Amino acid sequence: MAGGASTSFIMEDPDGDGGNPPSRIDTIKLNNNKQYTVTVKIYNISSGVVKDVSATVLMQATSHEFYFIPSGVSLTVQKTDKDKNGYPIGFLSTWQTSSAGNGSLLFKLMHKTALKGPNDGPNVGHSDIQLNLPIIIK
Amino acid sequence: MKKSIIFLLSILISSATFAQVSFGVKAGYNAASVKSNDADITADGQTLSGFHIGTVLNVPMNKKFAFQTGLNLGTKGVSVAHDGHGDKYKFTAIDIPLNVVVTSKKGLFAGTGLNLGYNLSGKLDAHDDPTENYDFEFGSDKNFTRADLGLNFLVGYQTKSGIFVSANSLVSLTDIAPSATSWKNNVIGLSIGYTLKNSKK
C-alpha cells in the first residue's frame, strides 16, 4: 500500500503453465478506496533451490508483458514500468480499489516474441504464466 | 517507382508481341526464415518449412533475355524454439515476381528482379497449447503490415520438353512489423514445374 505496510501474496505452480493446478494460491485481500503499489517477483523453485528469475524476464522485457484482469471486483490496474521500447511490462503497477466485493484476478505473463506493441490485448502471444487468483476488497 | 514498373512492363509486353510467350505452373518447398532484431528470434529462430504453388509467365525480350512474372501462393515465417518445442510464426502470402531472366542454349537460366508480396493471413501456432493460437492483426498500428516488397534471385534448368527445376531466394526489403521490432521475411524456394511451350501471342 502506498505509504503503508507491505504484504506478500504467494502463488505456486510447480509444473508451470497448464498441467496440474497450482499447489498454492493466496487470496489477495485489499481495502476499498485505497491505492496500492504492487511489485511482482518470479521464483524458480527446483530441488529445494529458490532462484529469483525476475531479472531474467526483465532482460527479455521487450517480449514479455504482465496482465492483471479483474472480474467481479472494482479494481483498476495501471502498469508503471516500461521496456526499452517504451512499452509496458507490469513488474511494477499501481492498483486502485473502489467499492468492496469478492471476485477474481486473472494474472498472466504473456510471451510475445516480435509481437509486443504499446497497447496489446491480453491474448497477444502465448502465456508463460496464467493463474486465476481470488481477491477480496473489504 | 510504380510508374517506372508500369512503363517497363509496357515496353516488355510491346516488344514481345511477336515473340513466343510461354506459360507454366510450378510447386515446391519453401524454407522460410526471418531477419529480426528480436532477441528470441536472433537466439532461437529456426527454418520454417512450407510450400508454394504458382504460375509462370515468360515474355521473351530477345533470344537470351526474358521478362518473367507470375502469381505465387506460399508460406513464410519462422519457427522459434521455446521450452523444448517450436512456436510457428506463419504467414500465407501471395507473391508477384518481376524478374529479368537469362537462359542459355542448354536450358540453364538465372534471373533477378523485384517481388511484390502481400500477406493474406498469419498466425502464431503455439505448439504446446493450440488454445493459445493467435491470428495476427494487420495494419499500420497492428502486429504486421500486409505489403511486402522484396528482391528475387533465381536459378534453374529447363528441359526441351518444358519441365523445369529451379531454386530461388526471396529477400524482403520491407520491415513489416510496425512496432519497435523489425521483421523481414526471407524464403529459399525449391520448385519443379512445367512450361507450355506453344502458347503464341
Task: Describe the structure in your own words.
- The complex is a heterodimer of chains A (138) and B (201).
- With 138 residues, chain A is mainly β.
- In chain A, the strands form four sheets. A four-stranded mixed β-sheet of chain A has the order 3-11-10-7, with no helix packed on it. A three-stranded antiparallel β-sheet of chain A has the order 4-9-8, with no helix packed on it.
- In chain A, a hairpin with a 2-residue loop joins strand 5 and strand 6.
- The two termini of chain A are 14 Å apart.
- Chain B is mainly beta and 201 residues long.
- Chain B has one domain: Porin (Beta Barrel).
- Chain B is built from two helices and eleven strands.
- In chain B, strands 1, 2, 3, 4, 5, 6, 7, 8, 9, 10 and 11 form an eleven-stranded antiparallel β-sheet that branches.
- The longest helix of chain B is centred in the N-terminal third of the chain and has 14 residues.
- The relative contact order of chain B is 0.21.
- Chains A and B meet through loops of A and helix 2 of B.
- The share of residues in extended strands of chain B comes to over 45%
- CATH topology call of chain B: Porin
User: In this structure, how is the largest beta sheet of chain A organized?
Assistant: 4 strands, mixed
Assign a percent range to the helix content of chain B.
Answer: under 10%
Counting DSSP H or I runs of 4 or more residues, the number of helices of chain B is 2
How confident is the prediction overall: mean pLDDT of chain B? 89
Can you identify the CATH class of chain B? Mainly Beta
- How many independent structural domains of chain B? 1
Overall shape of chain B: it is: elongated
CATH architecture of chain B: Beta Barrel
Amount of helix of chain A: under 10%
Major β-sheet strand ordering of chain A: 3-11-10-7
- Please give the alpha-carbon distance between the first and last residues of chain A: 14 Å
CA radius of gyration of chain B: 18 Å
**What about the largest sheet of chain B?**
11 strands, antiparallel
Largest interface by Cβ-Cβ < 8 Å: A-B, 20 and 26 residues
**Distance between the terminal alpha carbons of chain B, to the nearest Å?**
28 Å
Estimate the mean pLDDT confidence of chain A: 90
